[in-house]
Amino acid sequence: MADPLELRGELESALALASREAAEYVEGLAGELVLDPASERLLEGFDAPLPEQGSGALEALGELAERGRATATRSSGPRFFHFVIGGTTPAALGADWLTSAFDQVAFGWASSPLGAKLEGIAVQWLRQLFELPSEFAGVLVSGATMANFTGLIAARNWWADELGFDADEAGLAGSPRPRILSSGYIHPSAVQAIGMLGLGKGTVERLTCDAAGRLDLEALAASLENGDGPAIVVANAGEVNAGDFDPIAAIAELTSRHGAWLHVDGAFGLFARLAPESRALTEGVELADSVTVDAHKWLNVPYDCGVSFVREPARLARALNVGAPYLPSPDDPRPNPGFLTPENSRRARALAVWATLRAYGRDGYRAMVERHLRLARHLAERVDEASELERLAEVQLNIVCFRARPPDVGEDELDQLNRRLGEALLADGRVFAGTTVYEGRVAFRPAIVNWQTTEADVEMLIDVLLELIEEER
Questions:
Q1: H-helix or E-strand containing 204?
Q2: Which residues, 6 or more positions from 204, have their beta carbon under 8 angstroms from its beta carbon?
Q3: What is the DSSP letter of 140?
Q4: 455-472 and 350-385 helices, crossing angle to 10°
C-alpha cells in the first residue's frame, strides 16, 4: 500500500463512511443493548499482527465501524447508569467532529486563535452558568482528576507561600507535612491528584461522623482552630454513592475564619446550582478558592473534558507556565490557556463546550437538570413501592442508592445476592447499573445525567432488576 499522501483521494469517501456509520450508531443508542454479552468474544477479531501492507482507509474504517458497533459500550446512551457519565448533545457531537477536522493545538493564541478565543468564552460562560464570582478564571482539562490537580496545585502554591518557600522551584524536600482535611466523601481522583502533587495521599485527614462518611463539622472546626500551619480543605459537592453534599457554606465560614484554602470538588454536583430545588446544596461554593467540575458528566460533551476554576489564576501561571524561545511570552496579553494547565498538547475541547452552551443556553440546561431530578425521585418511588427493594439513602440530587432485599432472604446473605444481581444486570446488557458499598452494605447507585434518559429508561432498570431477582429464586 502506498504512502498516505498518495491516497489522499480517499478522504471524501472516508469521511462519508465515518459520518454514515456514526449517525447509525448514535441513532440506535436508545434501542440497543448497552453492551452486547457477546462483545468480549467479538473483540478478539481485532487481534492481528501489525500489517506490512496497509489495506487503505475505507477497508480499515469499515472494519472498525463493523466491529466497533458490535462491541462498543453504549455509555453515551440513555440507560447507562453505571458511573456518572453523561451523553453527548447533538450540538456537542457536531462540534466535536469539527474539532477533529480543524485539529487545533489549543495551547495559546500563537498556535490557535480560534481555540484560545473559544476557550476563554466557554470558560466564562461556564463561570456564569454556575454563578461564580467574576474574579475566578478557569481552564479546560481532561477531566475531574486533572481539574482537581490544577486547582490543588494553586492550593499548594498558596500553602508554600504561607510557609515562606517556593514549592514550584525548590520542591517539597524538607517541607512540613501538609494539612489536608476533608470528609469521607473525598473522591479517589482528588486523593490521586494530591499524591501526584507530592503532597502525599496519606496526608489526607478524613473527618467523619458516620459510616457513610459525612463530615464531622466540629472536628473540622477543632482541627482548624488547633492545628499547626496552613490547611487545605477539600469540600465535596456530590458524593458518588448517594449524591450527598458536604455542608459547603459552613465549611467556607470556617476556612475564611481560619485562613485556610477551600477547594470544592463539584464533578457533577456543581450542576445542582442550576435548579432552584437543589441550589441550596451548593451554597458557599462561591466563597471557595478553587472549584472543579466535569463537563463530560452533566454538561453532556464528549470525553474528555473537565474544568478547573481558581480565584487567583496567577498561582496557576506561577506553577504551570512553561518558557521557551519559540513559545509566547508570559506577558503576551492575548489568551494563552496553556500557561494555566499541566497539559501543553491540548485538543480544542472548547469547541464542544461553546457549541452546546450556545445551542441550549442556561434555560436548556436548567430544564435538563430539573428533569433528571424528577426522574431520580420517580426511580426512588419505584424502589419504595417494590417489596423486594430497599432504599438506603435520601435522594439529594440525581443518584438513588438502594439494594435488593427480598423478604425471604436473610441479612447475612444480602451482600452476596446484590453482588450476583449486579453482575447479572451488567451481563444482561439492557440496562447498566453497577454495585457499590454504602455504609457497609452492597448496593446499587444509578446516576441520571444523560440528556436522552426518559422515564421509560428508569422504569426498565427496576423491571429488569425485579426480573433478575425472580430468576435468582
A1: strand 204-206
A2: 180, 181, 182, 186, 191, 194, 234
A3: E
A4: 50
In whole angstroms, give the CA distance from residue 341 to residue 373: 33
CB 340 within 8 A of CB 313: yes
Looking at residue 328, the DSSP 8-state letter turns out to be P
First to last CA, the chain: 58
CA angle 316–318–322, rounded 5-degree value: 95
Average pLDDT for residues 169-196, to the nearest whole number? 95
Spatial separation of the C-alpha atoms in residues 419 and 294, rounded to whole Å? 29
Give the burial class of 117: count Cβ atoms within 10 A of its Cβ; 0-12 exposed, 13-18 middle, 19 or more buried: middle
| SS3 letters across 169-198 | HHCCCCCCCCEEEECCCCCHHHHHHHHHCC
Instruction: Report d(CA 297, CA 306) in Å as an integer.
Output: 9
Residue-wise pLDDT for 443-471, tens only, equals 999 999 999 999 999 999 999 999 999 99
Provide the pLDDT for residue 323: 75
How far, in Å, CA of 452 to CA of 28, rounded? 12
From CA 262, how far away is CA 292, in angstroms rounded? 12
Distance of alpha carbon 416 from alpha carbon 423, whole angstroms: 11
Residue indicated by cell numbers 437538570: 369
| Crossing angle for the helix pair 90-102 and 350-385, to the nearest 10 degrees | 150
Is 473 a residue whose pLDDT tops 90? no
Cα separation, 118 vs 209, whole angstroms? 44
Residue 149 CA from chain centroid, whole number: 13
Query: Locate cell 436548567: which residue?
Result: 366
How confident is the model over 130-148, as a mean pLDDT?
A: 96
Q: Which of 4-8, 101-105, 169-173, 360-364 has the lowest mean pLDDT?
A: 4-8
